[in-house]
Amino acid sequence: MSRPKFEQDNQAVHFLEQTPHPENRLLPSAQRDALGRAKMAARVRLTDLDYEGFERAQAALGQAFARSGLGRFLPIRRKRQLSIRSATASHHMGTTRMSDDPKRGVVDRDARVHGTPNLYIASSSVFPTGSCLDPTLTIAAMALRLAEHVATRFR
Predict the structure, then answer these.
(1) Stretch 34-46: mean pLDDT, rounded?
(2) 75: pLDDT confidence band, cut at 50, 70 and 90?
(3) Distance from CA of residue 142 to its chain's centroid?
(4) I need a surface site. Which of 19, 24, 26, 117 has the fewest CB within 10 A?
(5) What would you report as the CA-atom Rg of the chain, rounded to the nearest whole angstrom?
(6) ∠ at Cα 137 (19, 33), nearest 5°?
(7) Exposure string over 15-50, b if 16+ CB within 10 A, otherwise e
(8) CA proximity to 106, closest of 92, 125, 91
(9) What is the Cβ-side half-sphere exposure of residue 96, based on CA atoms within 13 angstroms?
(10) Is the pLDDT of residue 33 over 90?
(11) Residue 16 reports pLDDT greater than 80
C-alpha cells in the first residue's frame, strides 16, 4: 500500500541528546586533507536509551498534534527505520571528557588535563554528554570560566 504524496514528501527532523557510549569515537580515516593529514571519521551508534528517548519524544509530538487538530503525526515504529543524518547538525562531544577521576576522564573540573599542570582544553569535547542543542554558548561560558581560573592561578 503506498502512502499519500504528502506523507512521502514531508518528514520530521528530530534533534536528540545522545547518551554517552564508549564505542562512539572519532578516528583517523583513510582520506587525506590538502596538507596530507588524515581526516577524521565519526563512528556513532545510538543506544537503546537513545531510541527510548526518541520514541517518547515521538509519542509526545503525536499527542500534541492530536490535541491541536492541525494534523497527525506518523511515528517511526522500528529502530531500523530511524536514520542518523548528522553531517550538519552534530557536535561531537565527550572525546576528552571531564571527570574528577583520571580513569573516567581526560580533564578535571577546571578543564586541566590530568597529570599535566599547564595544559587545558576549552572545547565541547570535555562535556560528558551533549544536549540536543548547539553548544556554542556553553563553550563560551566555559572558556570565560577557564580564562578566569588560569589568570588567577598564574598571577
Answers:
(1) 88
(2) confident
(3) 17
(4) 117
(5) 20
(6) 75
(7) eeebeebeebeeeeeeeeeeeeeeeeeeeeebeeeb
(8) 125
(9) 16
(10) yes
(11) no
Length in residues, the chain: 155
The Cα–Cα gap between 132 and 43 comes to 18
Instruction: Specify the pTM.
Output: 0.63
Residue type, 44: V
Q: Are 43 and 24 in contact (CB under 8 A)?
A: yes
Mean pLDDT of 42-63: 84
Q: With helix as H, strand as E and coil as C, how does the chain read?
A: CCCCHHHHHCCCCCCCCCCCCCCCEEEEEEEECCCCCEEEEEECCCCHHHHHHHHHHHHHHHHHHHHHCCCCCCCCCCHHHCCCCCCCCCCCCCCCCECCCCCCCCECCCCEECCCCCCECCCHHHCCCCCCCCCHHHHHHHHHHHHHHHHHHCC
pLDDT of 87: 47
Examine the pLDDT at 84 and tell me if it is beyond 80.
no
Q: Are 121 and 106 in contact (CB under 8 A)?
A: yes
